[in-house]
Amino acid sequence: MTASASNGEGSADLTAAIHDLEHAIQAIGRGELGTRVTVSFGEDHPMGAMATAINEMCDALMKSRRARIDQEEELQRRIGTIQAQREAIVELSTPVIEVWQGVLTLPVLGMVDAERSTRMTRELLEAVSSVKAKLAIIDVTGMDAATVEVCDHLLRMARCVELLGARCALSGMRPQVARALVEAGSDLSEVASFPNLRAALAAYVAAKDGAITSRRRS
């Protein structure tokens, strides 16, 4: 939008210039920062100085708006990158590996919360169904914290696996994990537990019917 402040003599020309300036200011107030006032008065005239100031203000506001838009777009790009990296990390931190024919293992690494537990359960159940697994081993060797809530998540996961007709075992058992399981009020007879993954695999191989039982450290 361009408003003109006409140069001329007499009060009529001055009134028209003031009217044009008022329209320009109203347009700027509506966010129309492309508004410009045609400067016909000299800058030494109050009307000319005001028109020049309005144009300079619009230029500054347009520059600021463009900078803000650029910053917002960059922020969105960075958020997208962070989200993609987060999803990749989550996917890599929840691998379901077939270590033996019909035997899956889920290494639990780092912290486990409700959201991650749900994701792990979903991926493990999908893998059990896909390969028709006979045994799923949840390895907690690399798990950071063994809280009652986390152990409850693990046992729920084990029960879900067994509902699909597969056996489930825990490996990498440590004293704090065992204590948390007991504090959770869990029936430890429901799930076979082993000190490490190798012991769980050895028990599976030794069992003729796949009905593995816990093996204690020697």
Summarize the model shown.
The chain is of the alpha/beta class and 218 residues long.
How would you describe this protein?
The chain is α/β, with parallel strands linked by helices. It has helices spanning 11-29, 46-93, 114-131, 148-163, 175-183, 197-206; strands spanning 2-5, 36-39, 97-100, 103-107, 135-139, 167-171, 192-194. 55% of the residues lie in helices and 14% in strands. The strands form 2 sheets. Strands 3-4-5-6-7 form a 5-stranded mixed β-sheet, sandwiched between helices. The longest helix has 48 residues, at 46-93. The termini are far apart.
Looking at this protein, list some descriptive labels.
5-stranded mixed β-sheet, 55% helix, 2 domains, single chain, two-stranded parallel ribbon, 6 helices, rod-shaped, alpha/beta, disordered N terminus, Transcription Regulator spoIIAA, 218 residues
